[in-house]
Each structure stands twice: as C-alpha cells, then as structure tokens.
Amino acid sequence: MSYELTSFEKEMESILLEMQQQLQGKIAETDQDFRNVVGASGIKDSIDLATDDMAAKKMEAISKVDSNRLKAVEQALIRIKNGKYGICAQCGKRIPEGRLRALPYALLCMDCKSRNENH
User: Fold this and answer.
1) Exposed/middle/buried for 82, CB within 10 Å: 0-12, 13-18, 19+?
2) 10-24 pLDDT, tens per residue?
C-alpha cells in the first residue's frame, strides 16, 4: 500500500524538486568554472597564481555547501516518499509548517535545532 501525500507534502515536494534541479545546475556550473580555472594555461606570475588558487578554493567551498544542501534536499524527498516528512529526526515531534516553508529540507524542529547549537 502506498502512502498518500497531503496537499502540503505535494507542495513541498514540488518546491524540493525545483531546489534539487537548481542546485544540480549550480553545482555543474561551478564544477565547469573550477575546471576552467585549474585548466587555464599560459605564463602566470605569483599574483595570478594566488588569485587562481583563491578562486579555486572559493569555488570548492561553494560547491561543497551546495552539495551538502543537495543531499539534504534529496533526503527530504525520500522522507516525503516514506511518509516521514515533517517529523523531527531527534524528538519525533511534528516540525511546524512555517519552519518547513522557510527551510523545506529541515530535519529538526526548532527546539532540537536550538539545543544542538547550544552544545
């Protein structure tokens, strides 16, 4: 027997799928930019090399943040399919719709999130 999605879950699934698509595109674009910086040839002085290194590190950091966000979005989509979306992974309580609208891939309710940040 399959799980019937609520209208809210359908709405969030649509938003998450859009986020997934945008993040995949952004990661692919950043990856190509990274290859262009790393693969650029020619004679460069130390300032050019330092600038390229900083650009490469910045792109790598952006890509890592986007990759982590993409994983969170994909996990949220799995939770929707499994009927576990909107349930705090730590305490098991419902995550308020307002929090999910602000952060559709939220894994924790605000109480648990606050507790984790304070430790």
Assistant:
1) exposed
2) 999 999 999 999 999
Residue 46: C-alpha distances to residues 51, 52, 64 (Å): 8, 10, 27
d(CA 29, CA 11): 27
- Domain layout of the chain by residue ranges: 1-85, 87-119
**Ordered alpha helix ranges (H), 83-119:** 97-102, 110-118
- Which of 54, 63, 56 has the alpha carbon at shortest distance from 38? 56
How far, in Å, are 27, 32, 102 from residue 79 at the CA level?
23, 31, 17
* Gap between the Cα atoms of 63 and 90, Å rounded: 28
H-run or E-run covering 47:
helix 46-82
CA-nearest of 88, 79, 80 to 110 is 88
Please write the tens of the pLDDT for every residue from 36-54: 655 555 555 556 555 566 6
62 with 69: CB under 8 angstroms? Answer: no
